[in-house]
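Batch job 17 of 40 flagged for manual review because the log was empty.
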Amino acid sequence: MQERSYHHGNLRTALLEAAERSVVEHGAAALSLRELARELGVSHAAPRRHFPDRAALLDALAARGFDMLREQLVGALAEAGPAFEARLHAIARTYVAFATGRMPVVELMYAGKHAADTAAAPAAARAAYAVPYAAIEEAHREGRLAEGQHPQAAARLVYAVVHGLAVLLNGGIIDPADAPATVDTAVDGLLHGLGRGSVQDG
């Protein structure tokens, strides 16, 4: 009876949500289509209507993660306004908040081991990366980056720093109570290194 409640694509969403919970709790290696079907109360064959195998589900879960990250970054930048300093702080805070509590999923997103030539995750990753890159490229066009600073290199540095912070916070290396101040300090350091008097101007 419960299986009938999944209609109009709801089963696919339910599978992805259940898969995320499983990966967070047990890791990607333990993910099982059969166990997800049992958890959702559907037949063992039902998940294969949406995901032909485990690799396809992992790819879809990674793509979903990047899609969520992109949406959150877009929303945060819209609220931050035009100032480069505020936008960079928004990027860092949003990324760290997104990763908090779901680091196993974030690791899956970047692993790439499950990806095939037709995988959706790489395209979703590029779309997510394009959001902070566009903000940094805009700052470059406006002359906010230091002379000789290439926007692509600057964007990679920002991404590496915020991802590293997320790893340290989720690993317990940084106390959660210190997270906001730590993120802000890291961003201020980035602004000093990347910008042309950015912190003072902000």
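Reviewer: the log was empty due to a logging misconfiguration, but the result itself is present. The two ends are 59 Å apart (CA to CA). Unflagging and moving on to job 18.
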